[in-house]
Structure to design on (291 residues):
C-alpha cells in the first residue's frame, strides 16, 4: 500500500468543534440556539442509527435537535403538514427529511415543501437551481464534505481532471457541480457509461458514489490519483465503500477509508449548513473564517 489515508473522521471532528464555537457565539448574539429538525419516516435500522448520531452531534455542537419519527404508513398530507409546521417554527433553522422515504410517498413533493431558507440538505429545487447557476445557497452535505477533504488534501483544484461515478440528486450531481465550480474538468459517469475504466484512468480525482461494494478497482486508477469513496455498503456485517480499498490504495496517491472518511464529513457539514442557515435567518453575520 502506498496511498495516504485521508482522515475524514479527524477533519470532521475539528470542523464540528469550530461549528460548536460559532454556535455558542450565535446563541449569545441571537438569544436562542440554532436548531435542526430531522424527520424520519419508518424504522429502517441504518437510517435510525444515522438520525441518532446526528442528533447527538447537534447537541454536542450547542444546537437544538428536534427529532420527528413517523410510522412507515404515514400519508403524504400528514408528512407535508409536518414539514409546513417546521417551516413556520422560528426555533427551527434546518430541516432534514431522511431519504429514501417509503415507496407510497412522493419524495419530490415532500422535499419541495421545505422552505429553501431551511434546506440544510440542499435538495430543494431552489437550492439545486442556485448551485447549478452559481448563486450562493445551501449545498448538499455529502458533496460539500468531499470538496472540503479534496481542498484540504490537494489545495487548488483548478485544471484537474475529475470523475464522479453516480448521478444521484443527493450526491453525484451536486458533486459534479461543486467540482466544476472549483475549476475541475468533470466527467459525470452513471450506469449507462461506456468503458468506465477508460474514463477513470484519465482522472486526477475520483469520487465514487455508486452504492456497490468494491465496485471501483485499483487497476482502473491513474497512479497518484486522489480517491474519495462515498459508498456505505454493509457486507457480512461490516461497512465497506464503493472502492476496492486494497487494490486502490496500492495505486492511488490518497484515499478515504470507509468507515472514517466521507460519512463523518456529511454530519459535520449538516451542522455547518444549519449554522449558516441560522445566521441568515436571524440576520446575524457569521464569521466565515471560523468555519
Ligand atoms: N457517506 C455518506 O455520507 C453518504 C453515503 N451514501 C452512499 O453512497 C452511495 C451512493 O448513494 P446515492 O448517490 O444516494 O445512490 P443512488 O442509488 O441514488 O445512485 C447510484 C448512482 O450510481 C450509478 N450506478 C449504478 N450502477 C452503476 C454502474 N454499474 N456503473 C456506473 N454507475 C452506476 C447509478 O446510475 P443511474 O443514474 O444510471 O441509475 C446512479 O446514478 C451509497 O452506497 C450510499 O449508501 C449516500 C449518501 C451519503
Ligand atoms: N436527506 C438525507 N440526507 C442525507 O445526507 C442522507 C440521507 N437522507 N439518507 C441516508 C444517507 C446516508 N448518510 C450517511 C451519513 C453519515 C454516515 C456516517 O457517519 N458513516 C460513518 C459510519 C457509521 C456507522 O458505523 O454505521 C462512517 O462512514 O465513518 C453514513 C451515511 C446520509 N444520508
Ligand atoms: Mg492530514
Amino acid at each position: 500500500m502506498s496511498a495516504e489515508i485521508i482522515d475524514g473522521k479527524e477533519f470532521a471532528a475539528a470542523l464540528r468543534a469550530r461549528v460548536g464555537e460559532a454556535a455558542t457565539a450565535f446563541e449569545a448574539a441571537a438569544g436562542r440556539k440554532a436548531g435542526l429538525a430531522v424527520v424520519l419516516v419508518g424504522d429502517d435500522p441504518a437510517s435510525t442509527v444515522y438520525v441518532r448520531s446526528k442528533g447527538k452531534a447537534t447537541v454536542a455542537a450547542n444546537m437544538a435537535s428536534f427529532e420527528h419519527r413517523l410510522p412507515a404508513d404515514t400519508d403524504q398530507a400528514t408528512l407535508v403538514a409536518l414539514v409546513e409546521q417546521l417551516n413556520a417554527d422560528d426555533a427551527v433553522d434546518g430541516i432534514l427529511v431522511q431519504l429514501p422515504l417509503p415507496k407510497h410517498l412522493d419524495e419530490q413533493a415532500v422535499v419541495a415543501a421545505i422552505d429553501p431558507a431551511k434546506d440544510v440538505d440542499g435538495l430543494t429545487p431552489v437550492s439545486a437551481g442556485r448551485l447549478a447557476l452559481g448563486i450562493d445557497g445551501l449545498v448538499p452535505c455529502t458533496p460539500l464534505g468531499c470538496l472540503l477533504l479534496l481542498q484540504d488534501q490537494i489545495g487548488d483544484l483548478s485544471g484537474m481532471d475529475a470523475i464522479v461515478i453516480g448521478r444521484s440528486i443527493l450526491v453525484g450531481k451536486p458533486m459534479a457541480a461543486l467540482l466544476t465550480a472549483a475549476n475541475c474538468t468533470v466527467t459525470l459517469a452513471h450506469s449507462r457509461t461506456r468503458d468506465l475504466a477508460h474514463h477513470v484512468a484519465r482522472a486526477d480525482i475520483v469520487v465514487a458514489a455508486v452504492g456497490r461494494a468494491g465496485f471501483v478497482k485499483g487497476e482502473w486508477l491513474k497512479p497518484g490519483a486522489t480517491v474519495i469513496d462515498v459508498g456505505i455498503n454493509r457486507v457480512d456485517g461490516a461497512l465497506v465503500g464503493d472502492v476496492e480499498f486494497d487494490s486502490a490504495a496500492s495505486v492511488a496517491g490518497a484515499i478515504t477509508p470507509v468507515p472514517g472518511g466521507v460519512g463523518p464529513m456529511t454530519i459535520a457539514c449538516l451542522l455547518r449548513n444549519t449554522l449558516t442557515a441560522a445566521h441568515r435567518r436571524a440576520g446575524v453575520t457569521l464569521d466565515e473564517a471560523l468555519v
The chain is about 40% helix and 15% strand. The two ends are 33 Å apart (CA to CA).
